[in-house]
Each structure stands twice: as C-alpha cells, then as structure tokens.
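$ ./design --mode recover --in tokens.txt
reading tokens...
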C-alpha cells in the first residue's frame, strides 16, 4: 500500500511539472511517505527526519513533507520534534498534496487549514493506473478498499487508516480498462483487508467475477490481491478463483499465530481450526496454489506451547514464504497495556526459530518444483547479467532465463531447471504472445 501511494504521490508531482531526482542535494522537495505498522519503521524514518533537518541547518533550501501513517498518528507533534518539517500530511489529507505543490511553486506557504481532511480514492488517481509498480512497468496496483474495522490488538492500522471504505466498482473496472490500454499485463488489488470489500450489496467475490470478465477485453492476463484476512475468505471467493484462471495461483493469507489462545488475545476473529480448514478448501479447489503468510512471534502472554503451535501450523501448511517479525509494542493499541510481555531475548530466539523453519520449507517447496514447466511474465533485465531476463511465475516465484530485453512485458514458457538461492534458473524461454 505504501508503494502504491508513493507512486500516486510521485505522479501527482509530475502532473504539476515536477521532475524526480535521486540526489537529495539537488531536491527542492523531499517527501517521506511513512509507515506505522512496525515500531522499527518509525525509528528509521525518525533518523531520516533528523538527517534532513541537519541539511537545512547547513543551509540547504528545500521543502520537507512528512506523509503517510506516521504523519497521521503523530500529527503536529512531528513538527514540534522536527521544526524543519514544513508540512505534515496524514493519510486522510493526502488529497491536499497538489495544493502543497502549487504553494511551493508559487513561493508561498500553504495555510494547512485549507486542506480538507477527507479521504478519497480519486484525487490521486486522475486518469487511472497511478498506483503502478515502478520497478515493473507492466504490473500495477489497483487499490479497491482502504482502512480497517478489525482492531487486532497489536495493530495500529485502524487508528491511522480509519474505518473501511470500499471503492465504487465502476471506478475499479474503468481503471482496469485504462491500465489495459497502457499495456499492463498484471494487476494486484490492494486493501488493508482486501477481501473485506463491500459496495451496495456486492462483496469481494462479486467484484472478482466482474474483474475476471472485464480483463478479457484488455491486455491484462493475471490478477493478484492482498492482503487477505482469514475471517473474510469465504467459499465464494475460493470458487471464483478456481473457476477463473486469470487469478494467479498464489494467495497471501495472514495467520499471525497457530495458537487459539494467542489468536483470541490478538482479536483475530478466527481459530487455528478455521484457518487450516480454509487451507484445505483452497488446495482442494486449486491443488497447484502456493500460500504465503505473516507470522508474529512473542505476543504478550505467548507460552512455549503457544509458540510450538505456530511451528506445528507452519509444518502442516508449508508456506512458500512468510513475513516474520516479533511483537513490537504500539502505543494506542489494546496489546500495549497487556501483562506478561515476553522478554526481548526470548522474542528474538523464537523469531529465529520461525525464520529457520520457513527457510527450510521454502527450499523444500522450490526443490520440488524443479523440472516443472511454467508460464512466466517477463519483468525486466537481470542486474547481474544484461543477457538474462527476470521473470515471475503466477505462484510468485522468480526465474532467470537468457533472453532479449525487447521481450519485457510478454508472457513465456520455461522449464525450472535449477535453483540459485530462492531464484530458479532456466535455459530457454518460449514466447506465448
């Protein structure tokens, strides 16, 4: 979501006549689009603010903007801590970014009370496709909902993103067509809980059915979506995915813990048994599907038995990869005041065990794929060898193969011949379109 919104903010600047620079020393505007999901992310950005404040003290003349979730959470206290920040633009006031740009261009200061603090999908999606993936110009993000109603006890997101707001399906379908006109080959629907989407009697499965029909008119061949909450993943979504090969056979399904006691304390609103049943349904409907997840180690009150339940769930499911982290207290969340916090040393040891097991499963699953033939989207040229191409399978696996840079953005077939780290290598690519 941060990548998608950053891309939209960049395009808003370009449409106002700004040009991007990689060198902060030459910038007239520096914008830090922040994230509050992890405490460590906030710590890093504090260091960035201090760095740019130091540049201003040395006489560098530029406008410094704090944007995103951290700006939403801390508001003007950020500017109190770092007076060098010129504008604090939270998630709900980003529609005012063009006004900030105009003020900078005219050499005046914008009075921020003129920025209406209301969220809309449209202001930074002027002509569609503005949430593109700049690292792969043939793939694009399509935000479909914003915010969260779940209030997991460890998570700050509902407080910095607000309640769930779903986007008009007509706007989503229009953006799909605009992206198709631009030659996009793959889209990813985005939302804090993407499958919580609802619009006037429509749910997420209904939107997927509409999208599957719409992309048939376009250059788009693959659809992904993230992140999915297990409590909202129903039989209809699984059915629509299975019936429409346009949906990639990969799903990110956050589990967080394998212990019912911890899941309840997290307010995750599902059980271990419910999660494992969803996995069985998915694999029964789509035997080839791969699954990835989020795993949180060291939640307050997590016993050794609770933690072992997580390891056992990992053994049973065998995720292709996981985003793994240990608990960070987030002030303002329910878990912040919970008793029985786990010592940092134990949290780190548990996280190390999770990482070690996941690496084992990833290698095992990838080795089992050797010899398989796969359809891939050609994403770019290898940084290590200009005569090789980086490609991705629908199961979200990377493969390197010799090829011509003019093939980027096309689909091909290859055989997964060997592994280098977690990346497949192939000797030959046969173009499909």
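writing sequence...
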């Amino acid at each position: 979501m941060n990548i998608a919104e950053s891309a939209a903010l960049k395009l808003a600047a370009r449409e106002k006549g700004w040009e991007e620079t990689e060198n902060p020393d030459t910038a007239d505007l520096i914008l830090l689009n922040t994230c509050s999901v992890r405490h460590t992310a906030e710590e890093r950005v504090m260091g960035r603010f201090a760095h740019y404040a130091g540049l201003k003290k040395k006489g560098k003349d530029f406008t410094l903007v704090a944007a995103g979730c951290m700006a939403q959470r801390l508001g003007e206290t950020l500017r109190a801590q770092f007076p060098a920040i010129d504008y604090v633009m939270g998630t709900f006031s980003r529609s005012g970014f063009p006004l900030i740009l105009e003020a900078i261009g005219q050499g005046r200061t914008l009075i921020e009370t003129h920025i209406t603090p209301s969220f809309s999908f449209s202001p930074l999606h002027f002509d569609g496709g503005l949430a593109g993936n700049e690292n792969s110009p043939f793939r694009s993000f399509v935000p479909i909902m914003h915010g969260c109603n779940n209030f997991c006890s460890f998570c700050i997101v509902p407080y910095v993103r607000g309640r769930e707001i779903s986007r008009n399906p007509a706007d989503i379908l229009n953006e799909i067509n605009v992206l198709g006109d631009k030659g996009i080959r793959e889209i990813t629907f985005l939302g804090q809980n993407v499958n919580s989407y609802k619009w006037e009697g429509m749910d997420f499965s209904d939107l997927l059915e509409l999208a599957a029909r719409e992309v048939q008119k376009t250059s788009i061949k693959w659809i992904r979506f993230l992140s999915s909450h297990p409590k909202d993943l129903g039989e209809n979504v699984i059915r629509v995915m299975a019936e429409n090969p346009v949906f990639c056979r990969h799903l990110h399904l956050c589990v967080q813990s394998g212990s019912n006691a911890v899941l309840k304390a997290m307010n995750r609103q599902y059980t271990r048994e419910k999660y494992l049943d969803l996995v069985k349904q998915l694999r029964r409907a789509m035997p080839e599907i791969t699954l990835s997840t989020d795993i949180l180690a060291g939640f307050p009150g997590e016993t050794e038995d609770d933690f072992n339940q997580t390891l056992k769930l990992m053994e049973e499911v065998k995720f292709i990869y996981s985003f793994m982290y240990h608990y960070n207290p987030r002030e303002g969340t329910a878990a912040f005041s919970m008793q029985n916090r786990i010592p940092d040393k134990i949290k780190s040891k548990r996280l190390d065990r999770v990482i070690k097991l996941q690496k084992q499963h990833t290698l095992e699953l990838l080795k089992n794929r050797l010899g398989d033939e796969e359809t891939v989207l050609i994403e770019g040229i290898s940084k290590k060898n200009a005569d090789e191409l980086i490609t991705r399978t629908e199961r979200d696996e990377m493969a390197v193969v010799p090829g011509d840079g003019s093939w980027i953005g096309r689909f091909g077939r290859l055989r997964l011949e060997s592994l280098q780290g977690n990346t497949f290598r192939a000797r030959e690519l046969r173009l499909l379109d």
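exit 0
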